[in-house]
Write a structure and sequence with these properties.
Pnp Oxidase, Chain A; alpha+beta
Length: 178
């Protein structure tokens, strides 16, 4: 093997330690919590994600990373639509419903849902909802990176406390100064 292409961590133990160190480091990254939804043939699907980011404002585009083993992955991939619902602190109970496989039947029974222009479900109580059409897909490791062209943005006019995830716990925002 060419020395240039030799893995940096050749020992399995070192690789596992590196992965755990990476995960521990990423737990320190405070992130908003998104409920990513889709629909395929009027069957709704959704998952909780923190790997969501804006990519561009011209055109407005979001990036969403979805594990290939997620129950919602296929629906997003095949339908080509998704909605990124940024959750409010009031929506913390939905995280458990959408995170547990055994509660899949309950997922859209809770909350106030509407169907957006693309056909994706949107949570009415969300901090903001971005209705997207998938324009690019990139398979990388265990995930697919979806680029979604934002077709519509729905947000309430009143301020809503966002839900954050940090150090394996959900948190609220506290204003530092005035």
């Amino acid at each position: 093997m060419n020395a240039m292409f030799r893995p940096l961590l050749s020992d399995l133990h070192d690789q596992q330690r590196h992965v755990e160190s990476f995960k521990a480091g990423m737990r320190r990254f405070a992130s908003g919590v998104a409920l990513v939804t889709s629909a395929e043939d009027s069957v709704r699907a959704g998952l909780i994600a923190t790997a969501v980011s804006s990519v561009s404002t011209s055109p407005p585009t979001l990036l969403v990373c979805v594990n290939k083993n997620s129950s919602a992955h296929g629906a997003i991939d095949r339908s080509g639509i998704l909605c990124v619902n940024l959750l409010s602190a009031e929506d913390v109970d939905l995280v458990q419903v959408f995170s547990q496989t055994e509660r899949r039947a309950e997922r859209f029974a809770s909350g106030d849902w509407r169907t957006l222009a693309t056909g994706a479900p949107s949570l009415h109580s969300a901090l903001v909802s971005f209705d997207c059409e998938v324009v690019e897909r990139l398979s990388y490791g265990t995930h697919t990176i979806f680029l979604g062209a934002v077709k519509e943005v729905h947000s309430p006019e009143k301020y809503i406390d966002p839900l954050l995830y940090l150090d394996s716990a959900f948190r609220r925002v506290e204003k530092v100064d005035d």
